[in-house]
Amino acid sequence: MKAASRFMSAVSVVALSAGFVAAGAIAVQVAAVTSAQAATVSRIEVRGNQRVDAETVRNQVGISPGQNFTNADIDEAVKRLFATGLFANVSIRQAGGALVVTVDEHAIVNQVLFQGNRKIKDRNLEQAVQLQPRGAFSNQLMEADAEAVREAYRRIGRDDAIVNPRVQQLEGGRVNVIFEIQEGERTKIASISFVGNEAFSDRRLRDLMSTKASNFLTSFMRRDIYDEQRLRADEEALRRFYFNHGYADFRIISSSADLVDNQYNVTFTVDEGERYTFGDIRVESAISDIDVNTLQSHLETRSGAIYSAEDVEQTLVGLTEELAGRGYAFAEVTPRGNRDFQNRTISVVYDIDEGPRAYVERIQIRGNTRTRDYVIRREFDVSEGDAFNRVLVQRAKRRLERLDFFQTVNITTVPGSQPDQVVLVVDVVEKATGEFSIGAGYTTGGTTSSDGGFSLEGSITERNFLGRGQFIRLAAAGGEHSRDFTFSFTEPYFLGRRIAAGFDIFRNTRTFSNSDNNDIYDREATGGTIRFGLPITDALTAQLAYNYSQEEYERVGDAEVSTAIEQALEQGKWIKSSVSGSLIYNTLDDMKNPREGMHANFTTEVAGLGGDAQWLKVTARANYYHMLSDRLDLVGLMTVGGGHIVGFGDEDLRIFDQFNSNTRIIRGFKYNGIGPFETTPGGDRDYLGGTTYFHATAEAQFPVPVVPESFGLRGAVFADAATLYGSDYDSPNVHGTDMEWRASVGASLIWASPFGPLRVDYAEPIVKEDTDRIQHWNFGISTRF
Predict the structure, then answer these.
(1) How many CB atoms neighbour CB 14 within 10 A?
(2) For the chain, which terminus, N or C, has the lower number of CB atoms within 10 Å?
(3) Do 264 and 285 reside in the same domain of the chain?
(4) Is 496 part of any domain?
């Protein structure tokens, strides 16, 4: 027991001794820490600097001799020095009465060089990298730049490009950064296929996508490049298409891209679901002052119609704007759908409630290297300080996408500096907006020349001129007997308002012929138009314009001419000064390749504001497209139009001011090949045009079998009918002034070529007069609006 007691006593003594030692050590450490946290120094020494002045380093440290400082102050000093981007390494320590700051300066970039690149020019790669001459070098930036170069090659379809960065040391702490590039082979897209689609064919769905399978055309236009971002955008296009055609349950189960022998096979697996129509449509409001019955006119959704997410979105925008106009800036409209699976209907209730009071603190725009910020900002109906409304933000996103300046547009929100504020972050990826197009046409004679033949047209168009969102176009065309030059400019936001203002300048010459294709006179016209467009609704636009032109006519050849033309040629120079007003209604789903919707134009023009012409002209034209078969991608087109001109004042209506027939009115007949004419003493006929015309077209468009849709080739069959009659010229030798209808049937090939839309028509007249001039073939640029 005594031994045990003595042992325990010894242990206690040792334990107590160890405790005192530990306590003493801790006390020393605390003292040391306390001392380090409340130190002062008499001087600050800077070591390792070669180019950066020592005083600059001391200023960044922020600690003065004689000043108390802590470890936290040293940490902040290190962070500030690193933040300058001048140093690769920084250390700060205390040595006696001095604070020693040791720095390792970054090398300075002398040049950034690219070797082995042929497909992407140096200046384009220079824009992709962050390292720049006279800037600080870092390995992290160099590796990031190497990845940026790889990404640039991926965007042009060269996924296996190899980029090896290296550094070449120079004197004076300078380096050359060299990116050695092996471009590799270009990958292509072998096929794009779909699994699970029943309502729409693969061809129809592929036509919606910007990604195309490889062929010589898509390779030329660089549309067969596999790009993850483009594929995500294509997925969104598919969803939107299905949602707008009644398939509210549509989903993309998976999308895959398998690379085999440098070619991608892209496959989408989809679940279409059932097709729905709208059921009951109601508006309910939790705000007692709002009478929901007064909001019915703003509903774009109709009971019994095919369900469309776009109609729901338009209704949300309409209701939101109406409520904001009534003073409910924070009113929130939420659609609530109720599916009836048995009857395949979706009833929609639009709930109106007082939303949270949130304001837009700022709009932050990223990714636009060319487009000016204000071009993007002006598409928003909200600005900094306004009430935040998600519906109006989504509307701005749609507007930005419709500009066609960007590959992708994403708008997100992040919290602002206050709880009731949000920041809108707009991320865009720009794309090329310049276009060069060239086209050709062919007629068999009598259209605008004595012999017909080929004509060429070329144009240069920029839709985002200097990044200002302005439209500019320069075009020239010519054939053996025709010359055309036009220049157009449009500012879409005149004086900061959503008013389009622009002008057109033109000069053209024509040689006209008689019924025997003999040249009889030349016309040279020079003029211009100043125009303003004012949107009334999203679909309806009003346009006002002032038009001025000067025409000169010259007799050519020795062929006999009619008295009417002889008298008109004697008038010499002719000046037209007019104003015009138009209403344009446009609901087309795609201006380049429409399948649904209407495009209508009603124009009134009055000449007589000075000049020689004095007349009133009214014209109208409407094109209605409707999908006849979704599965077959069969599109129906109905076109109707007409015009009338009447003279007033002292001057008679010239025959040159009257309407002439053309292929936009009826195919199968030459330009100015039907309607009133005057016979010459020698028996020739000079067509005078008419004061009134009407026309109609029925057409069915369809994909050409076997040919891949990526070629952009479609076929059409059509039937045209038209009449051109009436004349202010009174002579016993004038005939054909009564309303006599002509009709033709035919077939067409329509090609969305890389150089612009082209069309070949063959028409066979089935109702005609013996005096008409026939023309079966017509080949030219397709402009049907």
Answers:
(1) 10
(2) N
(3) no
(4) yes
> By C-alpha distance, which of 647, 649, 669, 671 is closest to 660?
671
pTM (predicted TM-score): 0.74
Domain membership of residue 447 (yes or no) is: no
* Judgement on whether residues 732 and 684 belong to the same structural domain of the protein: yes
The answer as to whether 57 is a domain residue is yes
* Total number of domains in the chain: 6
- DSSP assignment of 600-619 equals EEEEEEEEEEEES--EEEEE
Residue-wise DSSP of 363-412:
EEEES-SSS-HHHHHTT-S--TTSBP-HHHHHHHHHHHHHHT-EEEEEEE
- Of 182, 198, 215, the domain-final residue: 182
Residue 637 pairs in a beta bridge with: 625, 699
Q: Does residue 712 share a domain with residue 569?
A: yes
According to DSSP, residue 142 is labeled H
Give the three-state DSSP class for 245: coil
Give CA angle at 639 (637, 643), nearest 5°.
Answer: 170
**How far is CA 246 from each of CA 39, 241, 311, 411, 624, rounded to the nearest angstrom?**
75, 9, 11, 26, 21
Q: With 0-12 CB in 10 A as exposed, 13-18 as middle and 19+ as buried, what is 496?
A: exposed
CB 472 within 8 A of CB 486: no
Q: Is the pLDDT of residue 14 over 90?
A: no
Model confidence pLDDT, tens digit, residues 486-545? 999 999 999 888 899 999 999 999 888 776 677 788 889 999 999 999 999 888 999 999
SS3 169: strand
Q: Which long-range contacts (CB under 8 A, 24 or more apart) does 399-402 make?
A: 400/376, 400/426, 400/428
The reply to whether 729 falls in a domain is yes
- Distance separating alpha carbons of residues 483 and 476, to the nearest angstrom: 8
Sign of the C-alpha dihedral computed for residues 396, 398, 401 and 402 taken in this order: negative
Residue carrying structure tokens 């160099």: 142
280-326: per-residue pLDDT in tens?
A: 999 999 888 888 888 988 899 999 999 999 999 989 988 988 888 88
Residue entry with tokens 């000069």: 507
Do residues 456 and 478 touch, judged by C-beta distance below 8 A?
Answer: yes
Round to whole Å and give the CA distance between 681 and 678: 10
The dihedral sign for the CA sequence 236, 237, 243, 247: negative
Using alpha carbons, select from 672, 666, 646, 642 the residue that is nearest to residue 657: 646
Residues 176 and 315 in one domain: no
What's the rounded Cα separation, in Å, for the pair 720 and 697?
5
In the prediction, which pLDDT does 33 show? 36
669 shares its domain with 733:
yes
531 neighbors 503 (Cβ within 8 angstroms): yes
**% of the chain exceeding 70 in pLDDT:** 90
Are 164 and 204 members of one domain?
A: no
| Range 60-69 average pLDDT | 83
| Residue range 691-706: mean pLDDT, rounded | 94
Residue range(s) defining the domain that contains residue 378 = 359-430
Task: Specify whether 150 is located in the same domain as 251.
Answer: no
Helix (H) or strand (E) holding 238, with range, is helix 228-243
In the numeric block, which tokens belong to residue 474?
A: 């320069």
Q: Residue 534 and residue 556: Cα distance in Å, rounded?
A: 44
Q: Is 485 helix (H, G, I), strand (E, B) or coil?
A: strand
Residue 75's CATH number: 3.10.20.310
Same domain, 301 and 212: no
Domain end point (choices 271, 302, 318): 271
Per-residue pLDDT at 10 exceeds 60: no
Greatest pairwise CA separation for the chain in angstroms: 157
Q: Where are the beta strands (DSSP E) in 48-133?
A: 87-95, 98-105, 108-115
What's the pLDDT band for 222 if we cut at 50, 70, 90?
A: low
Question: Residue 649: which CATH number?
Answer: 2.40.160.50
